[in-house]
Design a protein that fits this description.
The structure is a single chain. The protein is of the alpha+beta class. The strands form two sheets. The protein has a two-stranded antiparallel ribbon with strand order 1-4. It has a two-stranded antiparallel sheet with strand order 2-3. 14% of the residues lie in helices and 25% in strands. It has one domain. It contains two helices and four strands; from the N terminus they run E-E-E-H-E-H.
Length: 104
């Protein structure tokens, strides 16, 4: 079964306007030399899991969640999506792997 990323809440415990929604599209924002995020990132979410970006495995979903766009001024990877606690949620859709396995 394929899976999707669901944003639960900020890692700080604070609420956000996208809490409980699924990630449909994401491209991390870059940072300037002062550690300020530029407005070149994309985060599209939906409350409907059918609109969410689907992943074949939880590992693939986690790699997408941890996607980096450069390095922060403190030398750590710039991974804006990790500002949220997330759930890797199963979808009702069969993954490509499962579809292939069931035909053999």
């Amino acid at each position: 079964m394929s899976c999707a990323i669901r944003l639960l809440r900020y890692a700080t415990g604070e609420s956000s306007r996208v809490d409980g929604e699924y990630v449909c599209d994401y491209e991390p924002a870059s940072m300037d030399e002062h550690g300020i995020y530029r407005k070149d990132g994309t985060l599209v979410t939906s409350s409907d899991i059918r609109c969410a970006k689907k992943f074949e495995t939880t590992a693939e979903a986690f790699l997408y969640y941890a996607k980096s766009n450069g390095v922060r001024p403190d030398g750590k990877p710039n991974r804006p999506l990790t500002a949220w606690h997330v759930e890797i949620a199963p979808t009702k859709e069969r993954s490509l792997y499962e579809s292939r396995s069931s035909t053999h």
